[in-house]
Amino acid sequence: MPMHLIQSLWQGTQFVRASLLLHGVVLIATLIWPEQWLTSLILLALNHLIIAIVGMLPRSTWLGSNITRLPDAAAQRQEIALTIDDGPDPEVTPRVLDLLAEHNIAATFFIIGDKAERYPELCKEIVQRGHDIENHTQSHQHHFAFLGPDGFKKELQTAQATLTAITGRAPSFFRAPAGNRNPFLEPVLNQLGLKLVSWSLRGFDTQTGNVERVKRRLLASLQAGAIVLLHDGNAARTQNKSAVILEVLPAFIQAAQDAQLRFVTLRQAQSSS
Question: Catalytic residue at 231?
């Protein structure tokens, strides 16, 4: 492992530093007591297993900084952020934009670079209609969490260039596919000046077409400061073939407004705090 990467990881969380320290101790112990190689192997395997489990927990902060809620100041202002992933979708996204416009709401769209290249005018429309576009990788690989530093950098940097060229504005935030990652992501985020964002509420609207179930999941813990996750891309479909977000969004917006909550983008919440 290159020394500069080790230094970057060492500046990370206590968990990451402890894992690096464990690797060093095990290496030295194996050199001194080579007959204990099996014990050393078991210790490293357990450590990597824990890292893998933690990496599959989208809201975990053990591997690095992770925004799971809006800043306290935003919560005090009764703000919430609606974030919409995996688009743009030529069928669903325009209808989502119309729904948001009806209620005068700004949202944050985490866009996949490859899709942005296919639908650049739709991306421009998102920005023109008062919303923000952020980085959701270039290709949304399902094995994203197993990439190394170079793979992470390629995915994020390519998407950053793609979205900046189309919209004229560089993304400030990043969301990993399914929220999964490993310790090598944090140094890349720092290098590119991106902040990792997960969520505090999600309806699992890519997994079920049951609109009422998605609504219940979103509304059960809705409160000021929430970061809400829905999908315009890869959306599950209802029995009438409608994307779930189109059926859920009006009721969710109404419930939030009835609770005196105000929708903001992630950038608005951060800049005002």
Answer: yes
